Amino acid sequence: MTTALAKATAFTALHTPAAPLPLANAWDVASARIVEAAGAPAVATTSAGVAWSLGAPDGDALARDRALDLIARVAGAVSVPVTADIEGGFAADAAGVGETVAGVLAAGAVGVNIEDGTRAPAEHAERLAAARAAADAAGVPLYINARVDTYLFGLGESATRLDETLARASAYLAAGATGIFVPGVTDPAVIAELARGIDAPLNVLVGPGAPSVAELGALGVARVSLGSWVAEAAYAVARRATEELLGGGTYASLAGSLPYGEVNSLLKG
């Protein structure tokens, strides 16, 4: 418990616009070890990558016990704090979300992402409150990153989307969230408005074409996530290599791969 408390405290302290927390999301033990070995101060899982690696689609389709098992494997394989994307909470109701969070803490993670999706904001607030209650019961200051999907899914009218996002963020923080995650936004002007209007660390999702980490920090962003992009890139290599092998019988797609010995050594001990 002392270790969990220390890791949770350290993880929360990493969230600052002065030096935004950069997260290259992992989906298994090997990718988590690679991220840690590259110097990352924390490891975050990607729900999509985790689900795909376990043979399920993203979007609350993965069984909770399988997700918790993967979280435990990742948390047990690295020394830095781990935050887990648990989609909508792997549960049908708020009480179930509380059970999931208790399992996440037992697995060794000290942070979670919980998304609202198309759920009513009031219902999502109840889920976040249950997550906070479970963390409080365990005595761990769990970092609860409440994901607001208004921009990602284009919910509501575009003219009122910013106000709706800020209203949801306020309600989620009141329910016990630590920070707010707004994926689907790369416009600097909108990001700056979000940072000004949210009284908590702001997390955004990035990829090709998005502002740099330094630029996002200047806008007020405290956490920058690659989400499923890394897993998607890895699977793209698998497809390109296969198509090249089957088509031309060549192997150029594999240039730049990590050496076998380097990867293997990360899994020893």
TrEMBL record:
InterPro entries: ICL/PEPM, Pyrv/PenolPyrv_kinase-like_dom, Pyrv_kinase-like_dom_sf. One of its GO terms (molecular function) is lyase activity. It comes from the Bacteria. The keyword Lyase applies. Keywords: Lyase. This is Isocitrate lyase/phosphoenolpyruvate mutase family protein. It comes from Streptomyces racemochromogenes.
